[in-house]
Amino acid sequence: MPDIDLPDEFPEDMDPEIQQLFNDMKRADLEERYGMHFFQGEAARVPPEIERAWLEYIENFQQRIEKAEMVPLRRFVGLGYVRPLADLPAMAVEAELKDLLNHLLRHGVTIDFPETMKAAEVYRLLAEGLLDELIPDFNIPGLKRHFSFRKPG
Can you list the positions of beta strands (E) in the chain? Predict the structure, then answer.
């Protein structure tokens, strides 16, 4: 797809059909650049000026992700040293896991894991793996980061 030069500002009285064409081009551009998929069809239609604002928000969000420094999750949530599972007494694992999950939740990070997974395994996956994963270092009020240890399907 060729580069699209859309105006930064649109006149307030722009014909809605022309605005919709610009929106269609912007959607195609976002799909190509970021692999996004947008719901299509009559049910997805909103007034063109609202869709334009929404598409601009999405593009700005993606640009912030691209420009953000990548940091370990532990740094993002303000965690220093977290004891490895081998250093915890068996009786302390559930309490440590609860504290760790609550700390992550307070910083907008949710973890999903199968109910059948033992607390020790969840703790080990977090303390010795996930906390060292790199994530974009940016925050938007209300933004949640979700990690799942469930198998798809």
Answer: 70-72, 109-112, 134-136, 145-148
Which residues have CB under 8 Å from 71's CB, separation 6+?
134, 135, 137
d(CA 52, CA 75): 35
Look up the pTM and report it. 0.71
The helix or strand, by DSSP H or E, that contains position 100, with its residue range, turns out to be: helix 93-106
Interatomic CA distance for residues 104 and 82, integer angstroms: 13
Question: For the chain, what are the domain ranges?
Answer: 16-67, 70-148
Count CB-CB contacts under 10 A for residue 2: 5
Contact 146, 110 (CB under 8 A): yes
**Segment 138-152 mean pLDDT:** 86
